[in-house]
Write a structure and sequence with these properties.
- The complex is a heterodimer of chains A (about 325) and B (about 100).
- With about 325 residues, chain A is mostly helical.
- Chain A has 13 helices and 2 strands, in the order ααααααααααββααα.
- The longest helix of chain A is centred in the middle third of the chain and has 29 residues, at about 160-190.
- In chain A, about 40% of the residues are buried.
- With about 100 residues, chain B is an alpha+beta fold.
- In chain B, β1 and β2 form a beta hairpin.
- The chains are: A mainly alpha (about 325), B alpha+beta (about 100).
- Bound molecules: fe (ii) ion (3 copies).
- The site of one fe (ii) ion has 5 residues of chain A, from α6 and α7.
- One fe (ii) ion binds near residues 92, 146, 149 and 178 of chain A.
Chain lengths: ~325, ~100
């Protein structure tokens, strides 16, 4: 999902000597009893590491996710739409900050997390490396991308790590507005002129498959699922979430009078689920590796914002230090 | 200087009068005034609060989970601290 990078192959690190079998067993027993793990509790080093990677990738995704939509703030068609889009993008900044804050409870610094994003070392969701070329893209993102995010984040509200679960509760409360405003844009376009409807269909054509990729690689190839499931960091598998998303979204497209860009899409009476075509995993891995349409531009934009804001951060710090010194004197 | 991180503050918010402040999360800020501003922007975009407290995270003194047994278990067997411990005949009212 926002943390597809977790599914990439990585070197196995040496076992931590502090992770004794007794401690691991006691920890697993707490997890199995549905107890929440809190920041100062003992936890296996692998649990901590997995959470830091997953949560920071999630936070980075929220932050980079502001860019494709931010692209349209100054060009929103009405003042109403502009106010809504501003609020939506501001929420995404908030989501990033909630999750960075929760990640810091694991003993990493915000500085280091951000540095890893800016250097390209850390991953973020593949979906934000696609361009937003028409206003219909903004509708489609709210409808599909936030829709997929909700699908993924609802089970995370029950994640075994307390601070992450609590951050997700806040995030989920806010996501519903994101999805609804997007669908409303689509409704308006689809009820509009033929040209507007064509624009809506074109956006759906471009965003449907990348949205399905958001759930990450198929369970058959995903490596980290089993351990994450056992630790109750992850509750539902990639393929299961993807299927749920398809099942709820196809009827929404039908309501709009739009057609999913998938010739193999068919409702299976027996299972009660939609069957859909093969995802282009080659494209997925390429985007994740950094070769998507906008990967470079996104990182450049983040780096520029960070560099250009440096003097502000330093000035604020200097001012605070001066005030504190004055108080002490 | 590469490290220019602003210090971390914990944020507590009173949802409405009559309720106590509750821990909401944390934020970074250069100073106290900015901490309040950031807490407002981050945690009260939808009328979640009527009052905010911020405190430097390093100022919080926390108990250690390793001490949990010695701290909290002694309370477990003192069941006479709970009203249900006492058998009062049903005929006695208002108690
Ligand atoms: Fe979000
Ligand atoms: Fe999200
Ligand atoms: Fe969102």
């Amino acid at each position: 999902m926002y943390t597809q990078g977790l599914d990439q192959k990585q070197k196995k690190s040496a076992a931590d000597p502090a992770d004794t079998p007794e401690r691991l067993a006691a920890f697993q027993a707490r997890i199995d009893a549905e107890e929440k793990i809190e920041p100062k509790d003992w936890m296996p080093s692998g649990y901590r590491k997995t959470l830091i990677r997953q949560m920071s990738q999630h936070a980075h995704s929220e932050i980079v996710g502001m860019l494709p939509e931010g692209n349209w703030i100054t060009r929103a068609p009405t003042l109403r739409r502009k106010a809504i889009l501003l609020a939506k993008v501001q929420d995404e900044a908030g989501h990033g900050l909630y999750i960075y804050g929760a990640t810091e409870t694991l003993g990493v610094s915000r500085d280091d997390l951000v540095a890893d994003l800016l250097s390209g070392k850390a991953k973020y969701s593949s979906i934000f490396n696609y361009p937003t070329i028409t206003w219909a893209d903004i509708g489609t993102i709210g409808w599909l991308v936030d829709g997929a995010a909700i699908m993924n984040q609802i089970p995370l509200c029950r994640c075994s790590y307390g601070p992450y679960a609590r951050a997700m509760v806040r995030v989920c409360k806010e996501e519903s507005f994101h999805q609804r405003q997007g669908y409303e844009i689509m409704l308006e376009l689809c009820r509009g002129t033929a040209e507007q409807k064509r624009m809506a269909q074109d956006a759906l054509d471009r965003w449907w498959w990348p949205s399905l990729m958001m759930f990450g690689p198929s369970d058959k190839t995903s490596e980290h699922s089993a351990q994450s499931m056992a630790w109750k960091i992850k509750r539902i598998s990639n393929d299961e979430l993807r299927q749920k998303f398809v099942d709820v979204t196809v009827p929404q497209a039908e309501y709009l009078g739009l057609k999913m860009p998938d010739e193999d899409l068919v409702f299976d009476q027996k299972t009660g689920h939609y069957r859909f075509g093969e995802i282009d995993w080659q494209e997925f891995w390429e985007v994740l590796k950094g070769n998507g349409k906008c990967n470079r531009e996104r990182l450049e934009t983040r780096n520029r914002a960070h560099d250009e804001g440096r003097w502000v951060r330093q000035a604020a710090r200097a001012y605070a230090e001066k005030q504190a010194a004055r108080k002490a004197a | 200087m590469s490290k220019q991180d602003w210090p971390l503050y914990e944020v507590f918010i009173r949802a409405r009068s009559g309720l106590s402040h509750r821990h909401f999360g944390s934020i970074h800020a250069a100073d106290e005034a900015m901490a309040l501003d950031h807490a407002r922007d981050l945690y009260t975009r939808r009328n979640e609060g009527v009052s905010i407290w911020v405190v430097r995270s390093t100022e919080i003194i926390a108990s250690d989970p390793a001490d949990s047994a010695s701290l909290f278990e002694p309370a477990a067997d003192k069941i006479y601290r709970h009203p249900t411990f006492y058998k009062i005949p049903d005929d006695v009212e208002n108690m």
